[in-house]
């Protein structure tokens, strides 16, 4: 009996020593272990249409249905994840990791749904333009998930955050948006310092092919470039006539008497990454300046006619287009700033491709 009591006491003492040793780190009974953080294999995101979509995390295979969408994917650092492209991605010149991918068509012109099934993407990325609901429905029918993003400048922050979350690039998304916000803040600070109460009137004519007259297709109150105009104290004259896209009469432009005319190049007709000369853009400007019908329009009389590549009028690069236009409209306020340097930084730091091409003509500050 006495032996049992002694054994029990020793057992209790031994356990006490172990507990104290563990509590105070006197000895280690196990090898060091790392803290394990479980990474989800799926996440549910909310796209720009407010749709909740459950997708693999991170997305490894994606189809892009427009070159503007492709640019945002490359911007976030996920060009290697693209498995299918829209035709113009090959032509733009600055998507080296995507040009050899199969062409699936465009969300605006019938997609090749059979090919999309073969590519087995985790997601098809669409943008919130046109009859996107029909495309989403058709993709759903073939078992492919669609995520819709916005290219509207005011929605770029949420789009970049969404793409960062989808591809597991959250930190890069933060860095990109810091760059974007800083550029807008500087521009707005300069414009506000002018304290101008007069808003200049502007017109954007959308060009899709060579022409011998001012293009009159445009956008009104929902134009993407209104985001730029508002920050530069400009007014889109088409806003009083159109809400979305449409054609205006030349007589309307003459009567509205814009102070600035912009020919937007939507098809790399005059400008773009592959253009090394401004000759074609110069001819287009001359067409407008020498049109006798437009001779009394303020922009023509003052020589304020410009050609801008469409990519710097909307989406992420609207901030770069804003600097080109600000430099032309307010030369004194931006005399120490080079839009070309900002554009070069964007291409080489963020898109990770060499900067080249012509994007804005003329550049009066370079004369």
In short:
The protein is of the alpha/beta class. Helix content is 39%, strand content 15%.
Set out the fold topology.
Elements: H1 2-24, E1 42-46, E2 52-56, E3 62-64, H2 67-75, E4 82-84, H3 88-92, H4 113-119, E5 123-127, H5 132-141, E6 146-149, H6 156-167, H7 170-194, E7 200-207, E8 217-219, H8 226-231, E9 234-236, E10 245-247, H9 250-256, E11 260-265, H10 279-289, H11 298-301, E12 305-309, H12 318-329, H13 339-351, E13 360-361
Parallel strand pairs: 3-4, 3-5, 5-6, 7-9, 7-11, 11-12
Antiparallel strand pairs: 1-2, 8-10, 12-13
CATH topology-level fold name of the largest domain: Rossmann fold
Strand order of the largest sheet: 9-7-11-12-13
Name of the CATH first level of the largest domain? Alpha Beta
Quaternary organisation = single chain
Which percent band covers the strand fraction? 5-15%
Shape: globular
DSSP E strands, number = 13
> How many structural domains?
2
Radius of gyration: 28 Å
Secondary structure tally, helices: 13
Structure commentary:
The chain is an alpha/beta fold. It has helices at 2-24, 67-75, 88-92, 113-119, 132-141, 156-167, 170-194, 226-231, 250-256, 279-289, 298-301, 318-329, 339-351; strands at 42-46, 52-56, 62-64, 82-84, 123-127, 146-149, 200-207, 217-219, 234-236, 245-247, 260-265, 305-309, 360-361. β3, α2 (67-75) and β4 form a beta-alpha-beta unit. Mean pLDDT is 90; it is low at 1-37. A five-stranded mixed sheet has the order 9-7-11-12-13.
